[in-house]
Structure to design on (829 residues):
């Protein structure tokens, strides 16, 4: 039922934040009853554009037409009135409200809550059967899974009678099975005549569900093509502006002796939740061990326990040194002495001091070393700056200025700063969490190559990532975590997304 | 201790709890909407002063009450502009309000009345009189029920009854109305409200407004109901005690009532007994007078269970970037 009638027409949209031009001269037509994909690197301006359409930001210049009518979208209220609904990347839900309360919030009828809730309950029942959108209306948001929370967001839009649904990076937090389900829902919605705008950086999703795809680069719309007429390689090139290797080349691993071995790891957090349950595994020199799983199944805790940030029950052996995990000597410093480096998942919180200069950040955690000190009391800043200059070159960090604060770098370059610091210490074991979260395609390629280089140099790598593609292409061996346990172990070369997806969902 | 003593202590607890109830409910509306309000104290104080000043010059306590509420609303507005519109630090704005109120009230009182920073003492129509409920005198003789009715329930000023009624009203407004749903949402996740098409700014200003009115009632009661006139620093930390009661009550209206009456009781006991002897140890009067404050410190230090404040509390709302 593809119609050729454009439902949304954007004409020469401009938007700047201070000196940053987030959207430059963007014109776009979106046809009614289609799924329209928008791809682009982080900071390309996709989310800004959609936030303008949803009235969250105001465009500096340009016009928006909906169903051939010129409209002024001043706030979300008017976007909703024009039939636009949006599912943000970070859900906008009130955690301690019920599903139903979240759905009626802002769209209540009358001054009392009770009648609104009653009529919403009815509507919800119909929507649930119509689109496979089942959620328990009386559950609290904080008690349901992210997949469910996303459904609530979609229901919120449909309850407000949205004809146009915008989804911003909807699959980042979903298991493969949940993502499949989401796409089925989207196709149902399309068949009902709704128009869907899908923002994503995953080219595979674009290829499988969209009808048309637009590519953005540095605030500009570089191309709009029919999905059937394009391919991932071409899209990647349009996004980055140069050829990109999507496939990672790597040699067969040369497995050495055991580098890190952990026995009966158990960890219970401050709230009393048992986060890690009897974890046992080994990683050898010269291999990359991938740890897959949906976010929040214990991977973060495992990383922090291995890096010495958190105390736990159990034991690990690092290069034949036994460490009891709840002893006083189990801390990040002693780990570093044993040649363990850690690139934390949240680089802004744990990896960097955002207000410090890049060269200061380059020494953090290793600042006690003699090479960075001129004597007992003073740091040798000249030496540090020199070294930083070298690392900026080696890791292609841009802009190449070590005197900038960490917060002045883009996400990808911040990550390179952390990686440079940890890898240049020449660790025996590198523990790395979400190495490419929020990192541009171009930088991803670089980071992946550096990780593989390290492994080829005979070092052990433990890689935790929620991106299955990344796990599959980098790892030699893969562990899947679910609910704090290791659900299974697979050899990367002989497994696939489906098999891992089942383990990630706790089946298997 | 005979029944009459107990009843008298309870009676005075209720009167002493009244300003706390108003102030804690004021804090409830503000904080449930995500605006921390450490300035309850200052608003009570300006209201207490202006209510007494206007009541004494106009001769009408009702005009005084209106003036008190107006003063408190004005200060609430300052806090609102600072913390909502200009996204300033809510604690600093609150502290500033407290200092401003403490200094300004005495200064203006001195220049208006020249009585050493007080207002003239109020009497007659410029003070709230106790309301004797029907049959209060006739029923006194009935054992138990009689004294409870005529001493404890009857004989308070109108503001005491309003305070007690304000509790279920606040509960109804917060948990049963659309406005309440939005107010609670804005204190938990303002983005949820914004993207749902409701103005965060407006909702927060309305919350601040309600807070101002309630603080005004609290202050006016201090100077025209509980006492007869304004004296320097007469709020005596009650704004902070109300905050403690609010936390103790985990931001819930009914618990606020209980918490405030508990604080009122402690104050009533220390007012009545100069020294208390427990097991041959004499607790000096100073110790008794410290009790409400001691309890406040204990509560604020988080010894009483885990209280989860509204999630977006204290953070000014900015759209991303």
């Amino acid at each position: 039922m593809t119609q050729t009638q454009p439902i949304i027409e954007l004409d020469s949209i401009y938007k700047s934040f201070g000196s940053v031009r987030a959207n430059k001269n963007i014109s776009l037509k979106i046809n009614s009853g289609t799924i329209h994909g928008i791809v682009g690197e982080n900071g390309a301006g996709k989310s800004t554009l959609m936030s303008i359409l949803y009235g969250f930001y105001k465009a500096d210049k340009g016009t928006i037409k909906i169903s051939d009518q010129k409209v002024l979208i001043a706030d979300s209220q008017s976007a909703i009135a024009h039939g636009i609904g949006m599912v943000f990347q970070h859900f906008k839900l009130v955690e301690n409200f019920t599903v139903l309360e979240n759905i009626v919030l802002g769209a209540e009828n009358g001054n009392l809550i009770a009648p609104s809730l009653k009529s919403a309950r009815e509507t919800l029942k119909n929507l649930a059967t119509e689109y496979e959108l089942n959620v328990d209306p009386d559950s609290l948001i904080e008690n349901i899974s992210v997949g469910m929370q996303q459904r609530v967001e979609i229901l919120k839009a449909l309850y407000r009678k949205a004809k146009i649904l915008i989804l911003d990076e909807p699959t980042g937090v979903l298991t493969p099975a949940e993502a499949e389900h989401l796409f089925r829902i989207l196709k149902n919605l399309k068949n009902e005549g709704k128009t869907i705008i899908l923002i994503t950086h995953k080219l595979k999703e674009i290829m499988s569900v969209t009808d048309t795809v637009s590519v953005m680069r540095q605030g500009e719309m570089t191309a709009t093509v029919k999905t059937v007429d394009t391919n991932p390689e071409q899209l990647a090139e349009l996004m980055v502006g140069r050829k990109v290797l999507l496939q990672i080349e790597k040699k067969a691993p040369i497995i050495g002796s055991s580098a890190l071995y952990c026995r009966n790891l158990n960890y219970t957090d401050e709230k009393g939740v048992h986060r890690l349950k009897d974890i046992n595994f080994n990683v050898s020199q010269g291999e990359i061990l991938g740890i897959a799983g949906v976010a929040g199944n214990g991977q973060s805790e495992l990383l922090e326990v291995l890096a010495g940030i958190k105390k736990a029950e159990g034991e690990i052996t690092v290069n034949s040194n036994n460490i009891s995990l709840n002893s006083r000597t189990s801390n990040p410093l002693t780990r570093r002495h044993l040649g363990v480096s850690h690139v934390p998942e949240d680089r802004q919180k744990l990896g960097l001091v955002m207000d410090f200069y890049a060269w200061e950040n380059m020494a953090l955690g290793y600042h006690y070393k003699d090479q960075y000190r001129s004597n007992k009391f003073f740091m040798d800043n000249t030496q540090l700056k020199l070294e930083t200059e070298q690392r900026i070159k080696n890791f292609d960090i841009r802009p190449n200025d070590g005197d900038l604060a960490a917060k002045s770098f883009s996400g990808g370059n911040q990550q390179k700063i952390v990686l440079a610091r940890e890898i240049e210490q020449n660790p025996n074991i590198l523990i790395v969490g979400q190495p490419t979260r929020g990192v541009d395609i171009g930088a991803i390629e670089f980071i992946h190559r550096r990780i593989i280089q390290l492994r080829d140099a005979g070092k052990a790598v433990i890689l935790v990532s929620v991106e299955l593609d990344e796990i599959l292409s980098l790892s030699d061996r893969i562990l899947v975590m679910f609910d704090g346990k290791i659900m299974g172990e697979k050899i990367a070369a002989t497994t696939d997304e489906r098999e891992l997806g089942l383990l990630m969902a706790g089946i298997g | 201790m005979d029944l009459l003593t107990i009843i008298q202590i309870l009676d005075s607890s209720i009167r002493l709890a009244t300003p706390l109830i108003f102030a804690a409910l004021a804090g409830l509306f503000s904080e449930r909407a995500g605006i921390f309000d450490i300035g309850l104290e200052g608003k009570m104080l300006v209201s207490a002063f202006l209510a007494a000043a206007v009541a004494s010059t106009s001769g009408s306590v009702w005009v005084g009450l209106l003036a008190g509420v107006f003063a408190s609303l004005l200060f609430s507005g300052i806090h609102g502009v600072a913390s909502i519109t200009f996204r300033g630090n809510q604690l600093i704005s609150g502290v500033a309000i407290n200092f401003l109120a403490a200094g300004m009230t005495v200064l203006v009182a001195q220049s208006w009345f020249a009585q050493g920073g007080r207002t003239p003492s109020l009497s007659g129509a410029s003070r709230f009189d106790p309301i004797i409920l029907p049959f209060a005198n006739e029923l006194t003789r009935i054992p138990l029920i009689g004294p409870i009715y005529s001493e404890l329930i009857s004989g308070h000023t109108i503001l005491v009854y309003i305070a007690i009624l304000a509790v279920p009203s606040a509960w109804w407004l917060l948990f049963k109305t659309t406005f309440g749903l939005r107010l609670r949402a804005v204190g938990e996740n303002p983005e949820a409200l914004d993207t749902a098409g409701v103005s965060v700014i407006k909702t927060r200003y309305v919350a601040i407004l309600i807070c101002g009115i309630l603080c005004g009632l609290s202050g006016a009661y201090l100077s025209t109901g509980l006492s007869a006139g304004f004296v320097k620093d007469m709020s005596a930390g009650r704004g902070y005690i109300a905050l403690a009661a609010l936390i103790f009550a985990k931001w819930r209206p009914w618990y606020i009532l209980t918490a405030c009456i508990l604080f009122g009781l402690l104050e009533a006991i220390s007012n009545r007994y100069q020294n208390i002897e427990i097991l041959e140890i004499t607790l000096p009067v100073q110790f008794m007078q410290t009790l409400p404050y001691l309890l406040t410190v204990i509560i604020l230090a988080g010894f009483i269970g885990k209280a989860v404040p509204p999630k977006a509390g204290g953070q000014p709302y900015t759209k991303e970037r």
User: Anything to note?
Assistant: The radius of gyration of chain B is 20 Å.
